[in-house]
Specification:
mainly alpha
Length: about 150
């Protein structure tokens, strides 16, 4: 594999024999696996361990963003696989920019969730049940005593 940061390599569409190299196979495994995992967790945000630690809305927002990033990465892989080059989308620079987008998304999610975990105990929010509602003990009403008039 040539230098991945060489400008000529980044802006040249790959030859038909260079479509499935080691980088592309690892790229496909990461982005396809990430998309499937993000889609699964998006529709089941209460699954362990995420559902026990984070709010359902936060998990759904993070996985929604992850599906967009992984989907865009899969789009660039598909353009490379089909050997079409509309608007130069078949060039390797787009795949490297997708990896950069993935790393920035992971940093964004980490910063948001780290901040949310730090502020959650201070705001009095308790742990959450499977469906995301706070676990509180229901208050019992006092027993109504019947009074008799004598």
């Amino acid at each position: 594999m040539p230098n991945p940061f060489d400008w000529d390599y980044l802006t040249t569409p790959p030859a038909s024999s260079d479509v499935f190299d080691v980088f592309t196979i690892v790229y496909l495994i990461v982005f396809l696996g990430g998309f499937v995992l993000a889609a699964y967790v998006y529709y089941r945000p209460w699954v362990k361990p995420l559902g026990k630690v984070f709010r359902r809305k936060a998990v759904m927002k993070a996985t929604g963003t992850a599906m967009w990033v992984f989907g865009i990465g899969l789009f660039f892989f598909l353009i490379r696989l089909l050997q079409i080059n509309p608007i130069s989308f078949g060039e390797p620079i787009w795949m490297w920019l997708s990896i950069l987008g993935l790393l920035s998304m992971l940093a964004w999610i980490g910063v948001r969730w780290n901040g949310a975990k730090k502020t959650a105990p201070a705001s009095g929010v308790g742990s959450h049940s499977r469906r995301g509602s706070p676990q509180t003990q229901p208050s019992r009403r006092p027993v109504g005593r019947k009074t008799t008039l004598r």
